[in-house]
Structures are given as structure tokens and as C-alpha cells.
# Entry
Amino acid sequence: MKTFSHILTMALLAASTASFAQSTATSPTDSSSYTTYSTTKSTRRIEHITSDLHIYVGVNNFGGSLPAGYDFRPIGSRYVALSWQKRIPLAVMGSTKLRLVTGPEIAWNNFMFERSPEVGRNMLVERNNQLVIEQADTDLHKSKLVTTQLNLPVILNVTFRSGLTFGVGAYAGIRLDSYTKIKPEGGSAVRTHGSYSLNPVRWGLTTELGFRGQPKLFGRYEPNSPFKAGQGPDASVWAVGIKF
# Structure
């Protein structure tokens, strides 16, 4: 009987010891015993100067009071420019970003005379440093004045969180070439290069509106006449179109 009591006592002690050891033991991998903190290092994107090639396509014409004979086709008078632009970041850390856009461009102004029966023979010529409208001997399929200019625009561009972009600025340029192109009905075209009393330097205002990464609307306006004072019409020049 004493032996049985002794064995029972030893078994109870062993069971108690094992239970206590199990309740007090901790595992270094027990997720409930540790709190894990994760930190994410924020990265700041640094914007660099980028370059892009753009094409401007639209229509242009003279504004203001023009002398008789200066009747131009509103759609046929085209404006085209090839522009190599650099985008310089000024303030780009917030949701609204400000950039300076500039770079050289080559621009062509095409002023196409009307082909109606009343003015279908009008052509522009230079006589004794004066621009005059003369009548050709036959009907003309094409009669126009073309100017080629090297411009340098400077535009402040704002881009909003929605992707809407708006730019406003100015440009100045020098005349590279100018000529008239006359093509009689059924005949060959003839180009005549000359200064045509055009100022060697021109300047104007420009604006652009659109969405980031999409073609944009543009407008340009030259308040001063492209012709020398007293040698040609006192007219402004405007152009509107799409920038690709």
C-alpha cells in the first residue's frame, strides 16, 4: 500500500512539473510574443530636362484692315512648324507642376490668295520697294506668299493633377526665306524669291491647351505687321491649329 501511494505521489509531481514547464516556456518564433514594425522608405522622383520633337499644323491669315486685293483663302492659308523643345522643370514636387518649355523651331506661313472669279488673277509683286497687287494675264490655279522663319519660343507650362496642361509665352524669330509661288491654270508653277518688304525680325505671343501626352490646341498672334512700315499693309498675323 505504501508502495502504491509512493508511485502515485511521484506521478502527480511529474505531471505537475511538466504542466508548469509547458505553461512557462516561450518560443522565439511565437508571433504573439513580438510586435513587428515595418518601415517603408519614401522615394522622391527627380525630374530631369527632357527633349521632344513637335509638329504644329493649322491655318493662318492677316488681321486688321487690308488694302484691296489682299483676299486670302481661310483654309488654304496654312501654318506649319517643326519644333525641337526642351522641358525644364521649375516646380514639380506638388500635384500642380510648372515647367519652362523652349527650343528652336522652323515655321512656315503660307498666305494663299482666293481663286474666285473676281480675284482669281491676283498676285503679289514688289516694285521699287513697295508691295503691290497685280493681275496676271491668265487665271491662276495657285498664287501665294510663303515666309520661312527661325523662331525661339519661351513658354511657361502648367500641368494639373487631372492631366490638363496650359501654356502661355512669347516667341521671336528671324526671316530665313520668302517667296511667291504662281501657277497658271494648266501651266507650271514659278517661284520668285525675295524680301517682299518683310521685316527681318518678328515676334508674337503663343498659347497652348490640352492634356498630357495628347495633341494640343495652339494659338499664335503677332500684333505688329510683318511688313516694313510704309512698304506693305499694316496688318497683324494670327495662326491656330493642333500641336502633335
Notes: The chain has one domain: 50-243.
